[in-house]
Amino acid sequence: MCKQDRWCDSFQPTRPHRPLIIGELTLTLQGVLVLQEATTGKVLWSSANSSTTLIRNPIGRLLDTGNFVIYEEAGDKMINQEDPIWQSFNLMTDTLLPGMKYGKNLVSGAEMRYTSWKSYNNPASGQFSYGIDTRGYPQVILMDGPNIKFRGGPWNGLRYTGFPNLRPNNIYNYTFVMNQKEIYFQYNLINTSSLMRVVLHPNGFIERLLWVDSIQDWHLYLAPYNDQCDNYNVCGSFGSCSIDKSPVCECLKGFEPRYPDLWRVADTSHGCRRTIHLDCGADEGFNKYSNIKLPDTRDSWYNQTMTLGECKKKCKSNCSCTAYTNSNISGAGSGCLLWFGELIDIRTFAEGDTLFIRMPASELDSLKNSKSSSARRIILVMVPIMFLVLIILVSVCLFNRYHRKKHHRQGTLRNELEHDPVSRSGNEELELPLFGLSTLLKATNNFSVNNILGEGGFGLVYKGVLEDGEEIAVKRLAKTSTQGLDEFKNEVISISKLQHRNLVKLLGCCIEGAEKMLIYEYMQNKRLDSFIFDHTQSKLLDWPTRYHIINGIARGLLYLHQDSRLRIVHRDLKVSNILLDANMNPKISDFGTARTFGGNQIEANTNRVVGTYGYMAPEYAGDGIFSIKSDAYSFGVVVLEIVCGEKNRGFVNKENRNNLIGHAWRLHNEGASLQLVAKCLGESIVVSQVLRSIHVGLLCVQRYPEDRPTMTSVILMLGSEGPLPSPKEPGFYVEKSMQDTTRSSSMYDVSSSNELSITTYIGR
């Protein structure tokens, strides 16, 4: 009997195409299952692949895995448990359970695919099927009738190349087996108490579902494909799809649109062609293309023992060979995979594979670099010695001229920053590296639109790469931005000497003519809000990661409020101003509105309120009074948003019209705080940490500043298990119509509804 009955409904020995009113399922002495109509005795289905020899005592059993198996029983023992007479896992439906295989038996030729229902009310076979295509190098594909809808790509030793989100985890592991008898893929649960299934829906969508006991329902854990670039061959042959670019399709380097007019109107189905055709010359070679999903392998050849060098030699010796790579990238890499003809269904993403594509000599990267190096050597050798002294003199003159200009720019910088009324420390020496405009032009590809990371009131933010390979983020002040100029000066003054692992690092600035720019370290994972407020990305942040982020933000604020040279109040702390590095470490950014306090000063007021709706403390939004306690209020809002996965501004509870803060306050008083937790967190949560985070968040958003904890207290409360004070009523700020609204100046800005940075002047 199946103990875990939520899996039992996945067992279907057959898929009737017409309703069976009264049926009878019997097990014969040969171990054959027979399904027949009870009234007429007509056989509708039987397990024809069972043994034909006499079985003494066949037993049918439904296992906890959901697999219905038939064994021969001898006494209290079952014979051949590893190879039963028959098992339902060999007849796949629309559901893939742990331990179930999909692939192909190379001996019998039988294919194991799971197939969608015809509709949600009709279990007959539908139009979609998912399995392994063994033509060429095996790869997983989703078929829509006779057409490919999605291609997961070949197995590269670690994962399928088309599944960037298929990563090792603590819930399940996966196995790919390829030998002379069979090719198959299966997954197994690490924790057998968990329940998981993969379902192919009638509309062609695949979902990996995890059972969550706390809500008594299946929860979406992973969707293997979910964007435009996952559609099969969307950019045509030799075209590459990148979801981070607009338009998403572009030709690979060394290729051009086959029909430029159609390409310009977004008809990319005809793909690209070579700029210079191949002629199978001895001087042809290969260019390296990184971070890509490997092309369709149906027209490919593979060898699992060759080295990469042998693979290159094999491809070059065959004029029809288009590209090559390792078939297995685990360890140092091994195996050989060759393509012939056109390369189709390519996309780019950060964790993609490497492909070497055949190119004519004139297009080879290595040859271009070699020619450039040779030319430089010839010039150095042929320069007459008689001009050597002249060159030295010219070099000295240029060197002196450069340093005079540099000192002039430094003087200009000091005049604009150190004597500006925004500065509270004008007598201090600024030690900020200066970047040349030409350096930043080269790093950002002349400020290409493809390098834009964000946009706001300050101006545009670009991604750049310096000559040494270091990635940077460049904030470029808009020439027409008056507010941006103030924020530029304020940000340099506030953050130039701050050093903390939870603050974004300012690497330098550039001031040349009308150009004013700030250069920061580049954050690979961009902004926190792009994860927690996105239905798909939010699944990548489990609870331990979110708790790590909460504590990191708290440590960054503590440094600003207490441990830095001067006490600094950020004044615009929000989720979109938290950046994440490659290891998901949070870093507070955007100090354009920050204010410094000196001596024993603990608060100040202003008639120019700058900040963001939903994050500003009541006393700051209403009266212009700000302090470290107004930052604590913003931190509390951020904590609740991280736990809940919802925005405070724009959240409205259906029952009582409360915003997120009010909703959290009500649930806390009712002892139901866990209802606030984002559903995508599933069973990754640590209940004590979640409840403590919500409690601390509510302490931070209390109405009166004197009731709110300092960041020192916040860190102690988050890291201990002692009792916490009861939070008082939070400050519910009723939003008023503000004038002179400006766009957010966040780095890595993306479209974000219901969030508006404001600047308003309060009369005294």
TrEMBL record:
Molecular-function GO term, any one: protein serine/threonine kinase activity
Enzyme class: transferase
Gene3D superfamilies on file: 2.90.10.30, Hepatocyte Growth Factor, Phosphorylase Kinase, domain 1, Transferase(Phosphotransferase) domain 1
Main location: membrane
Entries under Pfam families matching the protein: B_lectin, DUF3403, PAN_2, PK_Tyr_Ser-Thr, S_locus_glycop
Record flagged with keyword Membrane: yes
Transmembrane segments: 378-399
Amino acids binding ATP: K475
Location(s), subcellular: Cell membrane
This protein's GO CC annotations: plasma membrane
Domain Protein kinase: 447-732
Membrane topology: Single-pass type I membrane protein
The EC number(s) this enzyme carries: 2.7.11.1
Keywords: ATP-binding, Cell membrane, Disulfide bond, EGF-like domain, Glycoprotein, Kinase, Membrane, Nucleotide-binding, Serine/threonine-protein kinase, Signal, Transferase, Transmembrane, Transmembrane helix
Catalysed transformations (reactions): L-threonyl-[protein] + ATP = O-phospho-L-threonyl-[protein] + ADP + H(+); L-seryl-[protein] + ATP = O-phospho-L-seryl-[protein] + ADP + H(+)
Protein family: Belongs to the protein kinase superfamily. Ser/Thr protein kinase family.
Official protein name in the record: Receptor-like serine/threonine-protein kinase
Provenance organism: Tagetes erecta
